[in-house]
Amino acid sequence: MIELNTERLRLIPLSAENLKLLIDNPKKMELRLSLSKSDRFLSLELKQAMEIRLSKLLADEGNYIWHTNWLIVSKDKNRNVGGIMLKGLPNENGEVVIGYYTLPEYQGNGYMTETINNMKNWLLNQSDVMYVIADTAKDNIPSHRVLEKSGAEMYKETDELYFWRFVRNKFLKKNN
Fold first, then answer.
1. What single DSSP character describes residue 151?
2. How confident is the model at residue 171 (pLDDT cuts 50, 70, 90)?
């Protein structure tokens, strides 16, 4: 099983079984992964996002790392502090879309900046990936800051969202 590591964090891609447990029985998932117990449950919005990830994962289990939630685990606490989702295989333009969340009590510790830096570096080293894309609600200022600190550029917007991207080769920007 693949796992990414930073100085303070472990990024663990959840199998279908562990993703289902995160949705239905997070305590059992923590036990299975030998994590410290918490009393955290997913918000309704996150639960719905995880259910979508699970349906995509079950449709393509061989590529589960591209469809699942990667649990963000603090090494010193051995506790789930958030997650980062890959929303599918790279498309024909080499784009991979990510989504992420930090559990409220762990916000403001730099965990997400560390996670995104690690994940984008790993993704941009995959042969089919040219861009890592993230979208944020226009009023989600903490998320904007994380993406800016991680080196993303805002390249598009809609009425509700900003779209950000990391580019594998900076010279590609000139051609877009």
1. T
2. very low
Q: Are 14 and 63 in contact (CB under 8 A)?
A: no
Crossing angle of helices 111-124 and 141-149, rounded to 10°: 50
Tell me what pLDDT residue 170 has.
58
SS3 46: helix
The model's pLDDT over 75-90, given as tens digits with 9 standing for 90+, comes to: 999 999 999 999 999 9
- The ranges assigned to domains in the chain are 4-175
Distance CA 159, CA 161 (A): 6
Q: What are phi and psi of 12, to 5 degrees?
A: -115, 115
Cα distance between the two ends of the chain:
36
> 4-175 — its CATH code?
3.40.630.30
